[in-house]
Request: fold
Amino acid sequence: MNQIIDIGLLGLGTVGSGVVNIINSPKGRHPLVSSINIARIAVKDLNRPRSIKVDSSILTDDPFEIVNDSKIKLIVEAIGGIEPARSLILSAIKSGKSVVTANKAVIARYGKEISDAANAAGVYVLIEAAVGGGIPIIEPLKQSLGGNRINKVTGIINGTTNYILSQMTKEGANYNDVLKEAQSLGYAEANPSADVDGHDAADKIAILSGLAFGGPINRESIPTKGISNLQSIDINYAHQLGYEIKLLAIAQHLYENSTVNESIPLALRVEPTLVPNEHPLSVVNGVNNAILIEGEPIGEVMFYGPGAGAGPTASAVVADILNIAGISLTNETEKSLDPLLSACSWRNCYLANPRDMPQKSYIRLITRDTPGVIGSIGNIFGQSQVSIQSIVQFDLTNSEAEIIVITHKVIKGKISDSLAKIEELKEVIKIAAHFSCL
Ligand code: HSE
Reply:
């Protein structure tokens, strides 16, 4: 294998440096790695000191120079954010280059525009690193599970929030203290909003949903709730009742019998969710990610591993580079795209009304400790056809009580209607928390 493929790397941060480390240490890896030459690298600041050794003559601070360089066959976009990343990806495609990107924000919003452009230009855009860090999940969904009807994708796909929740559970610590600790360890950003408010997980579930169900949905409409208002008391009660609280991202096909030609309604959401102890996602801790796919005929298959970090993310990026390199070395024209590697949408999907989503609920109520309060609450749930799985009272003071209700699975609208009526009861002081349960 002595043909060399020149690639252009945009960005030399955590992911870009990880890619350089792998490509520049080919010994013991697949022989294709030796065919890759990082010919140009775009950086923000040419004078910044770097932890890795790179030849300064290949650096530029103009990424478009690399995208327009005719020697470069493949662009690796590791800049992140929406712009200029989106324009760079589209320009690279326009000039006939395949692209590898870890950019979930761009793919979640502009994935269809980008894959249409790539298919028209006869090039690949591969995104294995965009979801789940080092976990192979994109190509398995596109290829290895291609024969299945996928019914549901459930993921822990944000390492930062999973680390925070794991520490809150293990140490009984509160959210703000654990966030500070996560920031000092470098697990959480100085501005943690993208992670803790659920936006990063929403980008990722939008991408997984598009692949699993065959069509994009409107990213901005995904109901998204983060972990910043989560109280350690709910983690504690959940634990006593046999659950862990995890930030889950879920995409679910609501009517499994639709045909390919129909538009299909999907229920998507990102929210803290009670996961029963016996469920495989309950034991996914720390910065790890896991994605559980339910399909027919495969049943359940779970992908687990490191969801972030330089090495794991670069591992996924390099796998994509090798996929494209392997194809270009065996297929001179690169015009006959491998239909399973190239992305495509094959049906219309839309977001169902959140009220129609079936779910179990955990509800924590603060009430006056008077006779009949549990009966009144039970009556209201009963009138809305919400069946209760368990109801437990914890005494707060002599006059106030905390009541935890876990319901059976029912559409969310019925729960919301019941809670609106329960809130009106004179014995109820407030609805202190409400989470979904698996
Ligand atoms: N910030 C992400 C996480 C990693 O915490 O999982 C990059 O997608």
In short: The mean pLDDT is 94. The domain at 357-437 is CATH 3.30.70.260 (Alpha-Beta Plaits).
